[in-house]
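It would be a great kindness if you could assist me with a short task in structural biology. The matter concerns a single protein, recorded as an amino acid sequence and a row of backbone structure tokens. The record follows directly beneath this note:
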Amino acid sequence: MTVKRWPRVLAHVFLIALAVLWLVPLVGMVFTSFRPYAETSIDGFFSWPDSMSLDNFRNAWDRGEMGQHFIVTIALVVPAVALTLLFSSMVAFAVSRFSWRFNIALLMLFTAGNLLPPQAIIQPLFQIYLRIPLPEIPFISNSGELRGSLIGLILINTAFQSGFCTFVLANYMKTLPKELNEAAMVDGASVWRQYWQIVMPLTRPALAALATLEFAWIYNDYFWAVALIQQGDDLPITSSLRNLSGEFFTDENVVAAGSLIVVLPTLIIYLILRRQFIGGLSLGGTKG
């Protein structure tokens, strides 16, 4: 083996070891979710199952009230992702396609928001949410305030995710030829038409990659939901796993089954958008 091939071999060994390190607990969780607790307690977590069934999944679905929490999660994630990509693409279009005095400062302001930890603003944000009234409408607000409302969760997730998306989209849009905008202006296209009909279609790979990431991040968020939502029925799907833990005893097999149910939507979204996701990341890494 030549000396030049050693770095590639070492890289492959490292990647394989890292993949095994990630897959071992996942495989163990899959086996555990299909077997009864009594068998796991006797034979151990990583033993080969003697019997398998879907009882743990049925118990997790019923005890965790996952149907209700899935509906709440869909009502949260879909508008939050859509608003994040819409607002971020607008700001990115303004700072990347036009030269004006504050475009760099505006981009830095949005990027700096990513450096602010959520815990630093939870107290003032909580007080603001307490003072903003909302009508008591199902799936909007059951408390009559912005605190404890689905709108409040959508707003804060959109605000915190917009900085990263603006940064990525602005760098992506800078790689597009500005002659496209100049030709559109000569033809009489308005700024909105340049944004919506020219730039946005060319940005679809980056939007698909960001949509996949944002769906996973907002879907898996637990901090904002616990901090701003007071009623258990209004919490997103990640909170349903909390209902599977008892005060004195926890069935780890049911928890494993519930975890697989919760993670399934993010896996489906990735499989659907994987080609666009990989294409968006590769284009973002090669252009510029």
Remarks:
- The chain has a mean pLDDT of 84.
